[in-house]
Design goal:
Layout lengths: L6 H19 L4 H15 L7 H8 L7 H42 L14 H24 L3 H17 L2 H4 L2 H4 L2 H19 L2 H13 L3 H15 L5 H15 L7 H15 L8 H12 L6 H25 L2
Helix pairs in contact: 1-2, 1-14, 2-4, 2-14, 3-12, 3-13, 4-15, 5-6, 10-11, 10-12, 11-12, 11-13, 11-15, 12-13, 13-15
């Protein structure tokens, strides 16, 4: 899902569902929520539209990469990392899952699962949304042949849903009341803080140091971009980080024999994987924590980091190896 939908949208959709299902099973949902947001962050690097930073990188005039190029280069990295993460998380969690399931069975008896079809409250909107999603994916694959931008390719199918919903005005009136304004204000304040940090010029100075240190060595440049952005993205939002680093990789590519494309893949992967190390590293992580808090499920910074940081390091090592092998 995260490779085709924005990772925040995936978190908003899947985390409440996970909490509801595992509460019904009598099992702690937090390990599974952590696994889901980690998977969403990894899946988001697979395509140009999975993460807003990928859109910024791919559509930048300095980089100018297509949806298909992202899929061919970051997609295999995402698949490899996801396979490793799934194996590690399974080995770590399957024991307690079995134990909690058996305890729940002894205490409450057999589980009564709800009818999935009863959860669909608007079948016509579901059908329109699925058609729009299929159109968006199709347009993204062929947008370079049509000569349109990736942004326009996704905007047209979204406009279809907007027109359909607007035609049912009685159901649109309560949209503002259903918006989670708390998340909006939270992100607004966070982006102000991040923008202030970016204005200090520290990131620009760091970028200048990276240009000097790489000195035309493509393998070193890729490694520097990957690990530096991964480290910074744990505390700085990815959007301003990528915006600052696009000119940096442009300067690195000015050396003979240094192509900008491998540096762009390193930038996309570094920010995507690095951000999953902390609860504040990506918007999807923070959305998941906000939902858990609303459901009275406390997930501390330490508990999240203990599970995510080791995986982040392993994932970066795998990604670094794949990026270097493809040079």
């Amino acid at each position: 899902m995260a490779s085709l939908l924005d990772i925040v949208t995936v978190a908003l959709f899947i985390v409440p569902l996970t909490v509801e299902v595992f509460d019904g099973l009598g099992i702690d949902p937090i390990p599974f929520v952590i696994a889901e947001v980690l998977a969403a962050n990894v899946g988001g690097i697979a395509t140009m539209v999975g993460d807003p930073t990928n859109v910024i990188i791919g559509s930048s005039p300095l980089v100018n990469l297509s949806f298909n190029q992202f899929l061919a280069n970051t997609g295999p990295i995402a698949l490899a990392v996801l396979a490793v993460n799934s194996s590690i998380l399974y080995l770590r969690n399957h024991g307690f899952l079995h134990r909690d399931a058996m305890r729940r069975h002894r205490e409450r008896g057999p589980v009564r699962l709800p009818n999935p079809s009863s959860a669909i409250k608007d079948r016509s909107l579901l059908q329109v949304s699925l058609v729009s999603l299929a159109l968006a994916v199709t347009f993204l694959i062929v947008h370079t042949f049509l000569g349109v931008s990736a942004a326009l390719a996704t905007l047209l199918p979204a406009f279809l849903i907007l027109v359909y919903e607007s035609s049912r005005s009685s159901e649109v009136r309560d949209v503002l009341g259903r918006i989670d304004w708390q998340i909006f204000f939270f992100f607004g304040g966070l982006f102000i803080l991040v923008a202030g940090f970016a204005k200090t010029g520290l990131l620009v100075q760091l970028g200048g140091w990276m240009v000097q240190e790489s000195g035309g060595n493509l393998a070193l440049a890729v490694t520097l971009v990957l690990w530096t952005t991964a480290l910074i993205s744990q505390i700085v939002d990815n959007v301003p980080l990528v915006t600052v680093f696009i000119p940096v990789i442009g300067a690195m590519s000015s050396y003979p024999g240094v192509s900008i494309a491998p540096l762009a893949w390193a930038l996309a992967v570094g920010t995507g994987i690095g951000g999953m190390a902390t609860p504040i590293g990506t918007a999807s992580n923070m959305v998941a924590l906000n939902i858990l808090n609303k459901e009275k499920k406390r997930l501390s910074f330490t508990r999240f980091a203990k599970r995510s940081i080791p995986l982040t390091i392993i994932d970066l090592l795998i990604a670094n190896a794949i990026l270097l092998l493809r040079l």
